[in-house]
Amino acid sequence: MQTEDRGLRPKKIVSEYGDLLAMINEQHDPEPLKILPNALPESLLPFPQTTIRHALSIYLLHQDYIEERDIIEDAYTFLDNFIPDDEYKLFTSLQVSMEAKGRLDCSEWIGNSDISNTMILLRMRTRRMKKRRKHSAQELKSLRRITGIPDKAFPQDDDETEEALELELNL
Q: How much is the pLDDT for 4?
């Protein structure tokens, strides 16, 4: 019984994901969310997140050059920015509404259950992304240890995390 698709090789998966990242870097559509820093719709991905993560892991296990490893590790971590399309659309409409009115005051949300529910969903997604980023950092540290490479310092309080934390506190 063949359980593996022979057409899906790590090189092909990583290459297509790299092409996507290059395209995102060159274009502004779709634009990453501001209310959920760098969030993009999951439908952009050429393969499921777990498949891409697995292929990147295989690449890391066979990569000796630090510069190449850093690029692959950044791509691995960036994968956490892709969220389900329905959430992306919902958060995009919330962001447009917030930009149109300026920063909304929390008292405006109390009577509006749609906005309140969206804000709760946004808070939950922010927490999941933060938790997933920490998990990714641990996975990358494990992969470095397996290959005998010293741990890379993974900042826990980078600008994106601070922005997400500030947003979470304001919700």
A: 45
Range 99-110 average pLDDT? 55
Q: How far apart are CA 39 and CA 86, in angstroms?
A: 12
Phi, psi of 103 (to 5 degrees): -65, 120
pLDDT surpasses 80 at 62? yes
Residue 76: Cβ within 10 Å count: 22
- CA dist., res. 121 & res. 75, Å (int): 26
Please give the single-letter amino acid code of residue 162: E
Which parts of the chain fold into alpha helices (H)?
Answer: 10-26, 49-61, 66-78, 85-101, 106-109, 113-147, 159-170
Among the residue ranges 88-92, 100-104, 145-149, the one predicted with the least confidence is 100-104
53 with 76: CB under 8 angstroms?
yes
Q: Which pLDDT band, with edges at 50, 70 and 90, does 28 fall under?
A: low
Specify which residues 40 forms β-bridges with.
Answer: 82
The tokens describing 107, both together, are 């008292």
CA gap 137, 151 in Å, rounded: 10
pTM for this predicted structure: 0.68
What's the CA gap between 31 and 114, in Å, rounded?
24
DSSP states of 27-58: --SSPPPTTTTT-EEGGG-SS-HHHHHHHHHH
